[in-house]
Design brief:
Blueprint lengths: L1 H14 L2 H15 L4 H54 L6 E2 L5 E2 L2 E3 L7 E3 L1
Antiparallel strand pairs: 1-2, 3-4
Length: 121
């Protein structure tokens, strides 16, 4: 069926002059190039879906970075506090002091868990 239509087209093209034949070939070439509206809409829909997914992934990465930065800042603050406490304890001198009543008290006194952990006098 298709080969018959091809023969008819070939026969019709032979009866045309050179310029007419070129116009027919040019018109048929123009019809076969480009995308249909449906193809463009589908491509835009696929691109939109991929863009939304990429935006969600990027937003997740940004939120994770913010949480990680906050946690790192808290860790640095804790490490700094422990460093200062450690330095203070290392520089403490083991000499006794007297309280307001004249009783001798140690310079540093530790308590039980749940009470005062350490008292510096």
């Amino acid at each position: 069926m298709q080969s018959g239509s091809k023969k008819n087209n070939v026969a019709a093209n032979r009866s045309l002059s050179g310029t007419e034949r070129n116009l027919v070939l040019l018109a048929s070439a123009k019809r076969t190039t480009g995308f249909t509206l449906l193809e463009l809409l589908i491509a835009m829909m696929v691109f939109s879906i991929l863009s939304v997914m990429a935006y969600g992934g990027l937003q997740s990465v940004i939120e994770t970075k913010e949480h990680t930065s906050n946690a790192a800042k808290r860790l640095v603050d804790l490490q700094t506090a422990f460093m200062f406490i450690g330095r203070d304890i290392e520089q403490a001198v083991g000499r006794s002091v007297r309280d307001g009543f004249g009783d001798v008290r140690p310079a540093m006194q530790g308590g039980e868990f749940g009470s005062e952990l350490m008292t510096l006098t």
